[in-house]
């Protein structure tokens, strides 16, 4: 958590870090990814067998450079196969001999789905990357029977039909998929089989019961909206309750393990753009209260751990600018990179309530990573993501305090300015198991630098490192030819004042 004192413009600013005050454990799953059958994410992103440059492709047809990039990020978990795509997806179409798999019209993005990649290929890709799969169930045209069959196919060690089908398809051992989503954005007008909150709650609860009877070890994720909607309130009230029948009388669990919410941010105004994730922070806080309210209303015993939020789609995206049915290939600016840094700061600050978060998406579609026939292009947003992935994991959120002036203009969404503080410096900090502290300061001001002595570093200085992500102007982008935005690394001794440049993200690291 970061507390904030608002100062007048020009007043001396300060940042204090308290590494000894560990507030909450960070779940590294906040660095999760998402791969949907959409645009060039799966076909052309993960899987590119026709690429003439054979050095880029492994024996399965996967892009080696994409796998290496995911490994560099140490992506802990990847959501699949959608997204909106999942509302008409029949998993059985995507298993067994490839040549026999049916091609289907695809109704989310209006393409044709070849089914060349399905469950077994995705699991293989996850194994190669070293990440955990997170599967979303079809709540549109799918049935409970199909969902149970998929769970059996993936997780069962018994001598039963779908477990045997998996063996027949070449995989003896169960995959033991832990994370399963009960649908995706079922509230949305764009969904095949859009539902009312009443219909969704009834169906989700009954599906959850059956799925947990088949495999009580799974983690089930309820489909929420944005954390502040009536939908969130209602589905939590109706699904987050004690369930002694399906859980063998357990008083340490409920059927629902996490509550999913989604938000994409974007604004043509660079400061509003960079600060827009602060709306998500408020949404997380409100959603956590809705979770508590459901516990109180429904008498969930204290022995049941608090349901966490699964922010399983987040990013900078303007769907009018990068149209979904055209592949949503956003070109990210420095301002977008700062927004991603603020998003990640939000997850670190709110780690008490975040069980998982998934950047939407991992490759090509609204992604930091773009495949070309020759290799990989790293967009501006790759660099803050890389720094968080390398250094802001495996530890605890620590208390910080920032005193600085604040932005007072219009925000995106407009309500954010009324319900959240908008400091020019967005700050988070953590301490790892190894005692290393990471402090991230995003200066969203377009022209003003801040010079600050960071308090809490320790007398006499440290042997620390400084990483800065910035560029010549807020709207620069990276191209195949030129990386306008990257990371500048230097040593940092913690003595005296540190400069935080305009339009920059700075990460400082030192051993406490
Ligand atoms: O990530 C792109 C799309 O955005 C997803 O398919 C959908 O869930 C959301 O609306």
Structure description:
The structure is a single chain. This protein has 512 residues and is of the alpha/beta class. The chain has one domain: Alpha-Beta Barrel (TIM Barrel). Helix content is 25%, strand content 25%. The protein has helices at residues 64-73, 119-129, 144-155, 161-168, 197-214, 230-239, 270-275, 277-298, 334-349, 382-391, 416-419, and strands spanning 2-6, 14-25, 33-34, 77-80, 104-106, 111-113, 132-136, 179-181, 219-223, 258-265, 308-316, 354-359, 369-371, 376-378, 395-404, 425-432, 436-443, 450-452, 454-455, 464-470, 486-492, 498-500, 504-511. The strands form 5 sheets. Strands 1, 2, 15, 16, 17, 19, 20, 21 and 23 form a 9-stranded mixed beta sheet that branches. The longest helix is centred in the middle third of the chain and has 22 residues, at 277-298. The chain is globular. The two termini are 18 Å apart. The model has no long low-confidence stretch (mean pLDDT 97). Bound molecules: alpha-L-arabinofuranose. Alpha-L-arabinofuranose binds at residues 36, 82-84, 184-185, 313, 360-361.
What is the strand and helix layout of this fold?
Blueprint: E1 2-6, E2 14-25, E3 33-34, H1 64-73, E4 77-80, E5 104-106, E6 111-113, H2 119-129, E7 132-136, H3 144-155, H4 161-168, E8 179-181, H5 197-214, E9 219-223, H6 230-239, E10 258-265, H7 270-275, H8 277-298, E11 308-316, H9 334-349, E12 354-359, E13 369-371, E14 376-378, H10 382-391, E15 395-404, H11 416-419, E16 425-432, E17 436-443, E18 450-452, E19 454-455, E20 464-470, E21 486-492, E22 498-500, E23 504-511
Parallel strand pairs: 1-15, 2-19, 3-4, 4-7, 7-8, 8-9, 9-10, 10-11, 11-12
Antiparallel strand pairs: 2-15, 5-6, 13-14, 15-16, 16-17, 17-23, 18-22, 20-21, 20-23
Helix pairs in contact: 3-4, 3-5, 5-6, 6-8, 8-9, 9-10
The structure holds alpha-L-arabinofuranose.
Enzyme class: hydrolase
Function: Alpha-L-arabinofuranosidase involved in the degradation of arabinoxylan, a major component of plant hemicellulose. Acts only on small linear 1,5-alpha-linked L-arabinofuranosyl oligosaccharides.
Protein name: non-reducing end alpha-L-arabinofuranosidase
């Amino acid at each position: 958590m970061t507390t904030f004192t608002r100062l007048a413009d020009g007043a001396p600013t300060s940042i204090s870090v308290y590494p000894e005050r560990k507030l909450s454990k960070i779940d590294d799953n906040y660095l999760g990814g998402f791969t949907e059958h959409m645009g060039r994410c799966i076909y052309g992103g993960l899987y590119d067998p026709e690429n003439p440059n054979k050095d880029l492709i492994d024996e399965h047809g996967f892009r080696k450079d994409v796998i290496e990039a995911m490994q560099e990020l140490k992506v802990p978990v990847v959501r699949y196969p959608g997204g909106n795509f999942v509302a008409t997806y029949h998993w059985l179409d995507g298993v067994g001999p490839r040549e026999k798999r049916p091609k289907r019209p695809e109704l989310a993005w209006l393409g044709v789905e070849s089914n060349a990649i399905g469950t077994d290929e995705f699991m293989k890709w996850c194994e190669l990357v070293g990440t955990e799969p997170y599967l979303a169930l079809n709540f549109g045209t799918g049935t409970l029977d199909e969902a149970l069959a998929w769970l059996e196919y993936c997780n069962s060690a018994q001598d039963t039909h779908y477990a045997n089908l998996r063996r027949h398809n070449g995989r003896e051992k169960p995959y033991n998929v832990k994370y399963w989503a009960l649908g995706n954005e079922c509230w949305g007008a764009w969904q095949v089989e859009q539902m009312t909150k009443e219909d969704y709650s009834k169906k989700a609860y009954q599906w959850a019961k059956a799925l947990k009877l088949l495999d009580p070890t799974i983690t089930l994720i309820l489909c929420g909206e944005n954390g502040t909607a009536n939908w969130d309130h209602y589905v939590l009230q109706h699904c987050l309750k004690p369930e002694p029948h399906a859980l063998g009388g357990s008083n340490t669990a409920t059927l629902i393990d996490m509550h999913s919410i989604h938000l994409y941010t974007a604004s043509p105004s660079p400061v509003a753009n960079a600060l827009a994730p602060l709306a998500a922070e408020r949404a997380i806080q409100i959603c956590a209260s809705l979770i508590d309210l459901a516990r109180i209303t429904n008498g969930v015993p204290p022995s049941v751990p608090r349901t966490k939020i699964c922010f399983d789609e987040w990013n900078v995206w303007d769907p009018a600018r990068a149209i979904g049915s055209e592949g949503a290939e956003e070109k990210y600016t420095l301002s977008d990179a700062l927004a991603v840094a603020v998003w990640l700061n939000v997850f670190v600050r709110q780690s008490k309530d975040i069980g998982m978060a998934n950047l939407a998406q991992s490759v090509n579609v609204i992604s930091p990573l773009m495949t070309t026939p020759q290799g990989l292009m790293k967009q501006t947003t790759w660099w803050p993501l890389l720094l968080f992935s390398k250094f802001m994991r495996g530890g605890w959120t620590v208390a910080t305090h920032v005193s600085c002036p604040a932005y007072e203009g219009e925000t995106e969404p407009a309500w954010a300015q009324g319900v959240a503080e908008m400091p020019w410096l967005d700050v988070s900090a953590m301490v790892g198991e190894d005692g290393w502290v990471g402090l991230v300061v995003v200066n969203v001001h377009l022209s003003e630098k801040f010079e600050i002595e960071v308090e809490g570093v320790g007398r006499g200085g440290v042997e620390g490192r400084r990483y800065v992500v910035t560029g010549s102007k807020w709207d620069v982008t990276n191209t195949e030819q030129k990386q306008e935005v990257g990371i500048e690394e230097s040593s940092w001794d913690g003595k005296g004042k540190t400069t935080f440049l305009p339009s920059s993200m700075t990460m400082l690291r030192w051993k406490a």
